[in-house]
Every structure is written in structure tokens, then in C-alpha cells.
From TrEMBL:
Record-linked InterPro entries: At1g61320/At1g61330-like (IPR053772), F-box-like_dom_sf (IPR036047), F-box_AtFBL13-like (IPR053781), F-box_dom (IPR001810), LRR_At1g61320_AtMIF1 (IPR055357), LRR_dom_sf (IPR032675)
Pfam families: F-box, LRR_At1g61320_AtMIF1
SMART domains, per database record: FBOX (SM00256)
Residue ranges occupied by any F-box domain in the UniProt entry: 4-52
UniProt protein name: F-box domain-containing protein
Source organism: Hibiscus sabdariffa (roselle)
Amino acid sequence: MASEDKITTLPDDVLFTILSLLTFKKAVATSILSRRWRYLWTSLPSLHFRYEYVVQRDDKDNVLQHYRRVNGVYKDRCIQMVNQLLRGRKGQELQEFGIHYPLLESSACHIDLWVAFAIAIGVSKLELNFSPYPHLLPISLNKNYSIPLDLFDKAKGMEPYLVQLEHAFSIPTSSLNVQNRFKSLRELILKFVDLTDEHFEAILSNCTSLEFLHLHSSSRLVNLKHTVPHMKLKCLEIFHCRNLEKVEVFAPNLVSFKYQGSKIQIFVKDAKQLLNLCMCSYIGELEYPLENSLGLPHMQSKDFVFGQFAAHLSRLEYLMMDVSSFEGKQQFNKLPLFSNLKHLSLTCSNSSRGPCGMLRCYHTVACFVEASPFLHRLELHFHLGPTKNPELRRIAISPHRYLKEVLVSGFFGNKLAKDIILSIFNFAIELEKIEITTVFLYDLSKRPFKNSVAVNEVVRRCMGQLHQRLPENAQLHFLDDDRF
């Protein structure tokens, strides 16, 4: 006698809980278990369609052949999958909706409907991640998707889309709470979606419950401005928007602000709750915007972080910056004590000198350690391969009892990087853990790469030397052993 299937007899809400603990791909796979499980996954409250669900990499394909498949047969398969699933839901409640596939403006007729569906049904999280694959292909040749601005028109913007939703997905208009469609949206993530300044204003003006906004690689943004207080916004992230020249936002309850790009003017008004700050003029980008359509003066490096956010520095618990914004100890003498800073992340190039060099990084560390009595975690991210290895002139740094964790990424085993780590061993007298990897972890949008055998041998030999000098109660972890 066959054993009884007790799981299948459980109530739907229990089965949904089980499915929610699985990846989307594994949840779909449960459809083969039994007749009851066949369509259960289609009613999940969270739907995220990812690139790897439809793309199968053929080892015989070169990069160009694979790219053609991604923008051909695989793209059609992705669109068909999303349309079929939305058609099967028939307007059921949905909390999260995300598309993670390199779709372009050519697929706008489908994406427009998906966005309209998500807004009309009242999702709390919407994510459009159209990051290109592979990353090395020239992005300028592709025309990115742009959300229709009329979707944010509270009067009649949704009406044409509602007719299409009813026709394409059999969703009756009566089941949608269209008037309150923006009140449910709390998280909005847009990557490689073309937005204008008007989009930014419309999003913050209409999405009054929005708590988290992430914008990545939107080339048409120039002057972001929202001067009416947005009371719910807690996290704002703006990454790699290459033509952006100015940001001005009024968010009294903002807790986290993260920016990566050229050095521009940024005004975050009345953000008295700000605790987390990332201000990085990424090494791979231009120091200043290519165009200056607003006629603004160039932002001085010393003011990019310490000038524009001077009023917030003493409250910060997390700070990430590149060392080009640091111009010496005299700069710190004019600043308040970083009395609440727990986590500091610094990035620099592997070159020894210059405004982004490792020597500048070492001096930055020395000043921050003295000015941050409760610093708990320090991260150093070295970009590019090492060049010269000058002698490190040690700076007298007082013993620090609160620094427990250190991460070093982009480590190639060069002498200067090793000497900087050894200097940390000297003043971090209560160090508990140091993690080291050859992978540059600062820019997570880049795919990690595997170093050559020769490089790995140098790194491992250096790791052995560091292990011999490790403080008594500290542990050293080489993360590449797990990654590769």
C-alpha cells in the first residue's frame, strides 16, 4: 500500500508558506508532484522572473552567439512565460513582482502591461532589472525601456491599460482598486530603465507610501528634484546614472542614502534620521559629468562627502566612500567626532600613489580609526592590479579596542597591501576576524573573476605570512576557497 501523502492534505496557506521558502525555479518544479500541486505555485504572493530560469548556456556558444540567443529565442520564451502566468492569476492579490532579464525598448508593449498590472493590483514591491548581458557589450547600442509617464497620471492615465489588462490577462476592472493603486507600493527598484527628471518627480509625488527607491544606470536623468517633503522615504539609492548633474530631495525620515557616480551636487534636506551613507565616485567613471547643462561649478573632492554631509557625519553608523574624497588629516581637524560610526568601507586603486592610491587609503584609515572610537568593522576594497610597492611609512595609531572585523577585497598579495594589513594587526588589539579575497567586492554589479594560477600562488604565500603574524585571538579566512 502506498504511503499517505500528508503534505498534500495540508491547507493552502501552509503549502504557500512551504513554497515561499523555495526559490522560484524550485517552486515551479513542484507542479509535477500531483494534480493539487500543479498550479499552486502560480498563486504565490511573490513572483520574480529571473534570467537563469529561461536561459541555458551552451558551452559551444561564444559570447556573441549567446547574446543573440538571449535577445532572440530566450527573450520570447521569457515574455511568453510572464504573460501566461499573469493570465492564469486572473487578478489574484500579489505582494511582489519582479523581472530580471535584459529586456529592451523593443519589448515595451509587453513591459508596459506588466507594470500596469503590478500598479493596478497594488504590489508592495516592484523590481525591473534589465541589466544587460554580457556586461562587456556596448550599452550605448541598446535602447533601454522607459516607463510611460502617463501611468502616474491619477486622472486617466490607467484607463487605456485597464482595457488591455482585461483583454490580455482576463482581469476584470472591478477587481482592481485603481484609485488607491500607488498607496501599496513601498519598494521600487529600476535598473537599466530609462527615466527622465519628470519620472523621478512623478514617482515621489504619487507613491506617497514609498520607503525604498533604487535607480541604476538611467542615462536620461540630469537634475533630480523633489522639494515637497516625502514622509515615508527611508532609503534612496542612485547608481551609475552617467549624465546626472544634481540631486535635491526633501525626505525628513531618510535613514540611508547611497550614491555611486561622478562628483555632483547633492542636497538631502532635513534628513535628521540619516545613519547610512555611501558616497563613491567610482574609479571606472568620469570624475565629473560629461555634460554641464546646468552650469554648476565642479564639486571639489574635499566637499563631495565631508562638505555636503557635514551636518550628518556625527550621527552616521555606516559610511562607504572612495579615498579620493579624503585630503589629509587637517580635513579631520575641522570635523566632529564620528562617535556613532560602526562600519567603514573604503575603496581605492591598487596604484601606490595619487588621490585614489593605497598610500592615501592608509592615511584615511589612520584618521578614521582615531576619530571613530566605536568602529566595529573596516572594509578595504582595492581596485585593479598592483603597480609599484613603495615602503609604507607607519603612522602612530592608538590601540583600538572596538575594531573586531576586517574585510580586504581585491588583494593580490603585493607588499604594500600586506604591510597595510600588518599595520591593522598592530592597532586592532581585539581583532576577531579578517576576511581576504582577490575579488573586488566593492562593485557587486561586476561578475567575480578567477585569477591565474601564478597570482593565486603569490596570494597564498602572502596569506601564510599574514597567518604567522595574526593576533592571538583572531581568525583569518581566505574567501576564494569558498567562492571558487
